[in-house]
Every structure is written in structure tokens, then in C-alpha cells.
């Protein structure tokens, strides 16, 4: 029996971009020591106080079906957080609780694009973006951001793609994974102008909004006339080191959220209540807690910058946020994919090749700042030494 074209077309050609990661994990499983700098997984676990709150909620009986759009308490807590952080008045009716940010991305595209319609996204991109769009039945159309622009997207190129494809939506991500770039106000105002002019939905992935080292995070939902056409993806994964709890949200116009709640009824049927209760507890710990979770990545960004500054082969893309640095290794004369494979083979260090994140990131590496400082410094020093050997 043949499967649907939609399911077979999620990753055409069979590659999902994670080959180096899979190979590194296989080596670790076989007992080989590998320094893994691939995925955005904190080197600490979820805070014990959050786990205690989760356990207490479960033992108190919140283990049955929970409200599908999210518990009123958690929806209110997310609404309060968005109101405080963005200045946009947000209510419970604007919030849908999802099984992590990834589920929110999928639901958002189901909501805004019919099968076959074009959905734009910025390249470089998080590896799941095009597959998520295809899985929702839309046509995934990349719009390149350029290294020479510091990977700030050009609104005029987004506008050209919107005209050419009759696009229904645009997906952006700031602070950005994989580049670490924080989009400027000028960039975001240009994007908002394009969205209004071409009557597009804007899907804004803001899961790294607590990890900003330079400048400020601006949610496009806060820009003039954008709240009615913007869906914001958020998550507890990065801000509270709760990656495995799979707790996120989608924020947008009340009518859209009501339809998305109906989608949840027919797909996930909600998030476990005891996990939602733990998320409420975590959010109530306030900004100081979130800053504590983010602090190691700011420190390690600075560590990486100092090491890169001490040589002349590799250049670091200015990282103003998120838990990664993007390294330009084009001076070595080999691709990011080939470099990552050699680094894994020769040094037992695993990083993500830029090509996993789109054509615009070719010749780069994404390094996750997710190991203790000394281990990270050792890995970066060896990576830089390999680059210098290759450059000759």
C-alpha cells in the first residue's frame, strides 16, 4: 500500500539535516566519547522545584484529561507574560497551550495556509521549518537572508517572493536559530510593512525571547496593525530548561485561537494537566529565574568570541542572542557538512553543518553552547585548530 504524498514529502530526498547528530549519538551509544554541540539542550536539568511542583500536581490528581485549549491558570499566566514583555494587551482567549513550540508551528501553518498555498520562511532556518510547512500541506518557499547583511532579512526580497508566489504567510524567528542574530527594529518594521501590503499572516517563533545579549527583542505583534495578523510561538523549553516537558503556546487573535483549539481537540487533545501546573509554577518564578537559565549562554557566547578573535581563519557571525554561535569556515575551502564530518571523525566533536539550516548557511557551522565552559573552550580550540590546518 502506498502512503500519502503529504507524509512522503515532509523531507523530500530523505534528509532531515540531522545526519551528523545521528552519527554522533550512535558513537556515544557505542561507548565512544564525543563532545556534543549539536542540539539546543541545556547542560542542566529542569529545576528540582519545578519537578516538585509537577509531581505534587500529579499526586493531587491532575492526571486526567485537562482543558484542551490549556488550563485557565496557564493561559492566564502566558497572557500576563506576553502583556508584560511586549506591551500588547493579551487575554486568555488569545492563548492556546500546545505540546511544545514544534506543535505550535505546525498548528499555525494549518491555520493560515490551505493545501498548495505558499508559506514563506527565512533561510537560514531551524531544520524542521520546511518539513513542518509541507506536513501542513502548504508549499514551503525559502527567502534567503545573506551573510553579508549579518543574516538580517531584506524586506524587499520577502516582498518579491510574496508577489511571485502569492504567499499566505511568512515564518520568522528572532532571536534566531541557527545564527544567533536578533532582528533589528528596522528589519521587523520592514517585514511588517510587507505583511500588511501583501495581506500575509506573520508567524513569529519567539522561543528564544529570554536569551538576548545585545539590543532588544521586539515582537512583531507589538508593531502597528500587526496583532490581528500575527501568531506568536512560545515555549518553556529554552526559557525554563523544560525541553522534555513539551509545553508551549500559540498566541494570536481570539477567533484564530478558537479554531486552533478545535484543531487541538482533533489532534493532541491537550497537554497533561500536571505539566501545565508545573508551567504555571515556573512562570511565577519571574524574570530573575529566566535570567539565571539564560546566563551561561551569554557567558559562553563571550568565551567563543574571544577564542575566535585569536585566529584569522574562522569568523563568528555576531551573535546577539540564543544559545548558539554560527561560525563562517569558508576560508577552509570545504563545505560545512564536510568540515563537521571531519571534526567528528578526527576530534570526536559534533557540531551542526550550516547546510542543515539551508543554502544561505552553506560554509558555516552552528555550535550549540550547551557544554560546561572548560569543555566548550577545549572543543572550540580544537575546531579552530582544524580549520587552520585545512586553510593551510
UniProtKB/TrEMBL annotation:
Belongs to the class-I pyridoxal-phosphate-dependent aminotransferase family. The keyword Transferase applies. Its EC number is 2.6.1.-. Signal peptide: none annotated. This is Aminotransferase. GO terms for molecular function: L-aspartate:2-oxoglutarate aminotransferase activity; pyridoxal phosphate binding. Transmembrane segments: none annotated. Keywords: Aminotransferase, Pyridoxal phosphate, Pyruvate, Transferase. InterPro entries: Aminotransferase_I/II_large, AspAT/PAT-like, NHTrfase_class1_PyrdxlP-BS, PyrdxlP-dep_Trfase, PyrdxlP-dep_Trfase_major, PyrdxlP-dep_Trfase_small. It catalyses: L-aspartate + 2-oxoglutarate = oxaloacetate + L-glutamate. It comes from Meinhardsimonia xiamenensis.
Amino acid at each position: 500500500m502506498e502512503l500519502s504524498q503529504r507524509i512522503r514529502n515532509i523531507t523530500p530526498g530523505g534528509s532531515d539535516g540531522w545526519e551528523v547528530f545521528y552519527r554522533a549519538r550512535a558513537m556515544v551509544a557505542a561507548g565512544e566519547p564525543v563532545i556534543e554541540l549539536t542540539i539546543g539542550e541545556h547542560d542542566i536539568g529542569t529545576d528540582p522545584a519545578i519537578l516538585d511542583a509537577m509531581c505534587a500536581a500529579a499526586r493531587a490528581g491532575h492526571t486526567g484529561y485537562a482543558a484542551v485549549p490549556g488550563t485557565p491558570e496557564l493561559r492566564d499566566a502566558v497572557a500576563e507574560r506576553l502583556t508584560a514583555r511586549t506591551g500588547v494587551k493579551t487575554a486568555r482567549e488569545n492563548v492556546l497551550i500546545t505540546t511544545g513550540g514544534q506543535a505550535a508551528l505546525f498548528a499555525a501553518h494549518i491555520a493560515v495556509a490551505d493545501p498548495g498555498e505558499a508559506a514563506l520562511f527565512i533561510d537560514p532556518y531551524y531544520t524542521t521549518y520546511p518539513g513542518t510547512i509541507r506536513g501542513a500541506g502548504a508549499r514551503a518557499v525559502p527567502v534567503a537572508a545573506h551573510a553579508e547583511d549579518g543574516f538580517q532579512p531584506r524586506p524587499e526580497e520577502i516582498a518579491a517572493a510574496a508577489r511571485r508566489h502569492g504567499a499566505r504567510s511568512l515564518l520568522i524567528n528572532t532571536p534566531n536559530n541557527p545564527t544567533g542574530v536578533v532582528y533589528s527594529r528596522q528589519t521587523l518594521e520592514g517585514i511588517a510593512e510587507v505583511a500588511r501590503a501583501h495581506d500575509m499572516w506573520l508567524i513569529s517563533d519567539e522561543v528564544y525571547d529570554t536569551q538576548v545579549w545585545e539590543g532588544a527583542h521586539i515582537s512583531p505583534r507589538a508593531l502597528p496593525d500587526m496583532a490581528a495578523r500575527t501568531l506568536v510561538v512560545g515555549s518553556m523549553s529554552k526559557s525554563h530548561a523544560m525541553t522534555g516537558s513539551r509545553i508551549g503556546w500559540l498566541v494570536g487573535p481570539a477567533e484564530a485561537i478558537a479554531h486552533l483549539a478545535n484543531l487541538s481537540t482533533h489532534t493532541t487533545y491537550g497537554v497533561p494537566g500536571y505539566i501545565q501546573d508545573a508551567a504555571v509554577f515556573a512562570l511565577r518564578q519571574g524574570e530573575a529565574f529566566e535570567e539565571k537559565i539564560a546566563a551561561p549562554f551569554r557567558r559562553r557566547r563571550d568565551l567563543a568570541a574571544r577564542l575566535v578573535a585569536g585566529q584569522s581563519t574562522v569568523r563568528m557571525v555576531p551573535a546577539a542572542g540564543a544559545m548558539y554561535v554560527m561560525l563562517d569556515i569558508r576560508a577552509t575551502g570545504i563545505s560545512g557538512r564536510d568540515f563537521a564530518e571531519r571534526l567528528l571523525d578526527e576530534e570526536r566533536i559534533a557540531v551542526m553543518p550550516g547546510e542543515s539550516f539551508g543554502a544561505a548557511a552553506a560554509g558555516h557551522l552552528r555550535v550549540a553552547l550547551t557544554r560546561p565552559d572548560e569543555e566548550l573552550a577545549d572543543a572550540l580550540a580544537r575546531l579552530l585548530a582544524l580549520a587552520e590546518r585545512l586553510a593551510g
